[in-house]
Design goal:
5 strands, single chain, 48% strand, 92 residues, mainly beta, OB fold (Dihydrolipoamide Acetyltransferase, E2P)
Length: 92
């Protein structure tokens, strides 16, 4: 019995894009993810943000970079996200 080897590469589920707000720690970043939604009753567009502690193994991201992050198993007490790639570098 033969099996098809035309498997698609795994797509990362649960990725978010945000801005690096702190790069002071080694291999760790704070990333702020902003999102907008419409108020269910009044219809006003509301902007909110969440901050995530992200593991950056090679220290590739810097302050002000736009990065893509993905959920992972806990790396430490607060870090449960890891850096996938730098989408846009800061204009410094």
């Amino acid at each position: 019995m033969t099996t098809a080897t035309t498997e698609k590469p795994r797509e990362l589920v649960g990725t978010k894009t945000g801005l690096v707000t702190s790069d002071k720690r080694d291999k760790s970043r704070t990333v702020e993810v902003r999102y907008q939604f419409k108020h269910p009753k009044y219809g006003k567009i509301i902007t909110r943000s969440n901050k995530f502690q992200v593991h950056d193994e090679q220290n590739t991201s810097k302050l002000g970079d736009m990065v893509e992050i993905v959920s992972c198993r806990p790396v430490s007490k607060t870090k449960t996200w890891r850096l996938v790639k730098v989408v846009e570098a800061a204009k410094n």
